Amino acid sequence: MGIDYIYPQFEVIRNDDRCTKCRICEKQCANGIHCFDIRKKQMVCDESKCVNCQRCVCFCPTHALKVTRNECSFRENANWDEDTVKEVYKQAGSGGVLLSSMGNPKRFPVYWDRILINASQVTNPSIDPLREPMETIVFLGKKPNSIQRDENGKIKCELPPQIELSMPVMFSAMSYGSISYNAHACLSKAARELGICYNTGEGGLHEDFYAYGENTIVQVASGRFGVHKDYLEAGAAIEIKMGQGAKPGIGGHLPGTKIIGDVSRTRMVPEGTDAISPAPHHDIYSIEDLRQLVYSLKEATNYKKPVIVKVAAVHNIAAIASGIARSGADIIAIDGFRGGTGAAPTRIRDNVGIPIELALAAVDQRLRDEGIRNHVSLIVGGSIRSSADVIKAIALGADACYIGTAALLALGCHLCRTCQTGKCNWGIATQDPELVKRLDIDAGSQRLINLMTAWKHEIKEMMGGMGINSIEALKGNRLMLCGIGMTDRELDILGIFHAGE
Fold this sequence. Notes:
The protein is an alpha/beta fold. The protein folds into two domains: 95 residues, Alpha-Beta Plaits (2-Layer Sandwich), CATH 3.30.70; 313 residues, Aldolase class I (TIM Barrel), CATH 3.20.20.70. The protein contains 16 helices and 21 strands.
């Protein structure tokens, strides 16, 4: 009954003079908002179902529609904002846990926006990336602490298994089932074309995508869905998922309604059965246990694949990363609290974890202080929104970045934050065949390629402006950054000076 107290969040405004009653909006809306009233001979809508995905607006041939935030709002104050009041009403009406999608929207500081990049002027000349070579290739994996030579004085070039990327960006873990077959196809095709990697997430690897193995990171989560020997051998690397930024300490859950057809076969879960990943790995309760799994995976793949351990950014992340670096892992992936996901408990999403910027800086410094920074590479994710964020992350100590939400936006996502319903109007977070086919694989993969190509050009331009010609020279170079509007303690953790110092 409490749900009745909530007025529709969005208002659908239709210009009747422009509307031709073509009913395209009705066909395009998966939420059943629009319909044709035969008696009135006009289009009507149920605004209570609107999620503001903008599909009807984009496809209306006469531009007769627009969706706006409803001005009929609650009386807010500094303590009780509208969202908080609505959440109380929803729980009072349902008695259930609130679920949310696509990242933390709260007004916490976004440190990327408080960090500025240095530029060369006189004493250290800038570099023109159009005329001089700029190295954006990165290798992820263990590195020696010093140059090793053989008895003849020649440099030993053998390294442990590495991932080679054409640029320091990868598509982060999004499982088949949480996103559609077409979305995975877009990611895999784009990754191969770009010379980077995409991550399967915890849902296994569809047989059609084994062909993209050299550009695939296969994930092993607590539920072990879709994990078998061929799966492990298919990828360029194996990632052990301990946690993710949107829901630290919480497991995964894919509803049985999405466990159908190929999703069921790929995950090796019976159709219609909920796929629940427990919060902990029930064979990992210490760094020693983690080490055993790391080496079990290496043994299963003849020590040919680097092993990544992915953890959420939490308050003691530096100590956690130090332990992981000693577990035998080759790469650590850290996911900040603004990371997106298909469904997370709202209270967890909005209140648990720390910003990726602070976590990254703390981890990089801890590993350097302990003399083990070269034992692992660092990947960071959790709201990497632009090439500038990538540059800042590398200067803070990252080797590469994961992007998830930015990649989905390139595919057409409108951040309507209803992924958990399975009614994605853009064919991304759905298994409905009629909705899935809305995402064109060739067009989607090309948009991802375009996005990454643009970012790569911008990365080169920014490095050139700093007088730096390689990602390796930028990594951990915090003198290339300065902060604005931050406390001394924040600047100290980030390891940068305030602008003007």
